[in-house]
Amino acid sequence: MWDRPALVTTALDSLDVGGSLTVVAEHHPRTLAASLDRIRPRQALWRYRHVGSGEWLGEMTRVDGDSAEPSALERLRRIRPFAHVDRAVLQHIIDAMAEHEERKGHVVVRENELLSGVGVVWSGSLARSCSGINRDRLLYEYLPFEMFGIVEFFDRGRTMGRIAVISKTARYALIPSGVLRSVSQRNHTLLAALGEVCAQRARLLTDALNAQVSLPIIARVANALLPYAASERGLHAVLTPLPSMTQSQIAAAAGTVKEVAARAIADLEGREALKRERGRIRYLDREKLVEVLNPS
After folding, report:
1. What per-residue confidence (pLDDT) applies to 54?
2. What is the CATH superfamily name and number for domain 72-213?
3. Is 203 helix (H, G, I), strand (E, B) or coil?
4. Above 60 in pLDDT, residue 2?
5. CATH for 215-293 (1.10.10.10, 3.40.1620.10, 1.10.150.20, 3.40.50.11540)
6. Where are the domains of the chain?
7. What strand order describes the sheet that includes 274-277?
8. Can you tell me the distance from the alpha carbon of 286 to that of 296, in angstroms, rounded to the nearest whole number?
9. Which one of 62, 109, 123, 190 counts the least CB within 10 Å of its CB?
10. How do 162-165 and 126-131 pair as beta strands?
């Protein structure tokens, strides 16, 4: 796997603008995408699908990285359900949606409230979490060009947990549910694609539950950190937003409390799976994290 960034870079260079290929990975391909972006900035658009235990598909499409800031219509087309929607319909959605830019900690959606719209993330990261008696549980992140609020859109129920900004800043937009419902009822392809997004969230929730009941604490913390580890060998700088995440947030991602997560982080540092600076995790070793997750 360690030569994968070079192989994917070569494959990207062979594509024409608009051309695509699919990468199969054992974990979320976001680290591979980050490695590629360092080598070929703004040259690739990624869409991810979790298809089974230890199997992810990353669809990489070459884009014109030298072009100006993409228009709202071009950005909306980068989101899988809207990729092939008629231009006039997309413009109708754009005219109705409200754009936002918020800082870390801002609560976009509160727990157990009626959600008036479906969100799309333009930059930064949001996360959905739920509150327990003594702890929070971070369920999953929303990355750029991903959607949130789809479950509530389909069942019209109250929000499951809260959604908040976890990166330094985040840009997102909210599409009124009534507008999206009206459009999707006339476009079955769009409706099916929204259903696929909902199904992907169910898979991620199942993964979170499985990790909670089957992995020891140190493995759960390693599993929570793995998405931020670079694809290269050895200790490498972590991906955002981990440098700005607190131990409480890491604990919430691992399904434990801060004190227990702190001990696991210290243990991982002793194994040279991570390195901290000023109390924050700055470097991760992907290979050693995987060894903790899959001991021989």
Report:
1. 81
2. Jelly Rolls (2.60.120.10)
3. helix
4. no
5. 1.10.10.10
6. 4-62, 72-213, 215-293
7. 235-237, 280-285, 274-277
8. 16
9. 123
10. antiparallel
How open is the CA angle 249-174-128, to the nearest 5 degrees?
A: 20
The answer to whether residues 9 and 40 touch, using CB atoms and an 8 Å cutoff, is: yes
User: At 255, which amino acid appears?
Assistant: G
> Whole-angstrom Cα distance, residue 129 to residue 143?
15
- Asked whether this chain's domains 4-62 and 72-213 adopt the same fold, the reply is no
Give me 258's structure tokens.
């801060």
Measured from the Cβ of residue 91, the count of other Cβ atoms closer than 10 Å reads 13
* CB atoms inside a 10 Å sphere around CB 196: 12
Alpha helix (H) ranges present in 215-285?
A: 217-225, 247-254, 258-270
φ/ψ of 231, rounded to 5, equals -80, -15
Which burial class, exposed, middle or buried, applies to 192 when counting CB atoms under 10 A from its CB (0-12, 13-18, 19+)?
exposed
- Considering Cα of 14, then 18, then 21, then 22, what sign does the dihedral take? positive
Closest CA to 150 of 109, 187, 122, 186: 109
Contact 48, 57 (CB under 8 A): yes
pLDDT of the residue at 88: 95
- The reported pTM is 0.86
Distance, in Å, from the CA atom of 74 to the CA atom of 33, rounded to the nearest integer, reads 20
If you count them, how many residues does the chain have? 296
Best CATH choice for the domain 4-62 from the list 3.90.660, 1.10.390, 3.30.110, 1.10.10: 3.30.110
∠ CA 148-154-160, rounded to 5°: 55
State the Cα–Cα distance between residues 126 and 149, nearest whole angstrom: 12
| Tens-place pLDDT, residues 62-102 | 987 665 667 889 899 889 899 889 999 999 999 999 999 99
Overall average pLDDT of the 221-230 stretch: 93
How big is the CA angle at 28 (ends 81 and 284), to the nearest 5 degrees?
A: 145
